[in-house]
Amino acid sequence: MAHSPAALPPGTLEQGCPIRVEHDRRRRQFSVRLNGCHDRAVLLYEYVGKRIVDLQHTEVPDAYRGRGIAKHLAKAALDFVVEEDLKAHVTCWYIQKYVKENPLPQYLERLQP
């Protein structure tokens, strides 16, 4: 019996595949492949200064919402900011929410007003 994406447990994709975030530095985006490689969830960012990124937008297709995919994207982006010793301006409402729910010092000290 085939499962629709919404019927699978959080943190997994079709056939129980774990969520894997990829970082494309050239396109300035983090992404998760969904349904093979046809659909993607993405988090977009731009450099707005030499060491400042704007975390602009997170988008997960409707059929995959509520599975923690955006949470994985937000964590990957914030970990990138920490690892690269950058500052972050957060335009995306979802990432703002993620930081409020996960107020880790290494994230908070890198946020720009």
TrEMBL record:
InterPro entries: Acyl_CoA_acyltransferase, Gcn5-rel_NAT, GNAT_YJDJ. Gene3D superfamilies: 3.40.630.30. It comes from the Eukaryota. Residues 22-112 form the N-acetyltransferase domain. Transmembrane segments: none annotated. It holds the Pfam family Acetyltransf_CG. Belongs to the NATD1 family. This is Protein NATD1.
